Amino acid sequence: MKALLIVAHGSRREESNVEVRKIATQLRQCSTDQYHIVRAAFLELADPLIPEGIKQCIDDGATSVIVLPYFLNSGRHVVEDIPRIVAQTRQGYPGIEIGVAPHLGASALMMDLLIATANTSR
Amino acid sequence: MKALLIVAHGSRREESNVEVRKIATQLRQCSTDQYHIVRAAFLELADPLIPEGIKQCIDDGATSVIVLPYFLNSGRHVVEDIPRIVAQTRQGYPGIEIGVAPHLGASALMMDLLIATANTSR
Hints:
The first copy, chain A, has helices at about 15-30, 50-60, 75-90, 110-120; strands at about 1-10, 35-40, 65-70, 95-100.
C-alpha cells in the first residue's frame, strides 16, 4: 500500500497549516488509485512533524511512503533538512521503502500551473 | 500586449531568487502566444521589487499586466501585501490594466502537479 506524505514548512499562522492539511484531504479524494494513504506533515512549527507523519502512514498500513516537499524553491530545507530527517526516520523502518520526491518548483508541470493560474486572475 | 509578472517573496539566499528568475525565463519561452512579456519581481529582499517589475513590463510595451503570486499558501503576503502594493502602483498607470492572479496553492491543477511530482520521486 503506497502512501504520500506532503511536507510543508509549517507556520505560526494556523490557517496556513490547515490549508496544507486540506490539500492532503483533497489529494486523498482524487488519487485513491495511486496513493491509498495521503497525509500532511511539517518540518517545524506544526503537527505532525515528519517522523510522526511517516509513522502515521505506516500505522495506516503503508508499505511504501513518498515524502513530497511542498516547497517552491530548493533552499536548505529541501536540499538538506528534509532528506536528513527522512534518512534518520528510515532507519527505524527497515522493511518500508521511504523516498523523497523533488520539490514542486522542479516540476515541468509548474509551467502549466502558472499559466492556468494567471488565466484565472481577477 | 499582455505581460505576466511572477512575484515571489524574495530570499537572502540569492540562489532562490535566481530560481524564480529562471522560471520566468522558461515561461517566456513556452507561453509566447498568451503572454508576450514574462518577468519576475519580489515582495522584498531581492530586485526588482513589485512596482519596478510592473514598470519594466510597461516599458517593454505591456498594455495589461497580470501579477501572479508565486506562493503556496494564502498568508498575509498574498491576501494583503501584494494586492496593496499592486493597487498603489496601478494609480501611476491609469491606461494599463493591472490584475492579480490567485496564489498557486488555490489552483485545481495543483493536484495534478502534486501527483506528477510524487511520481518522479527518487
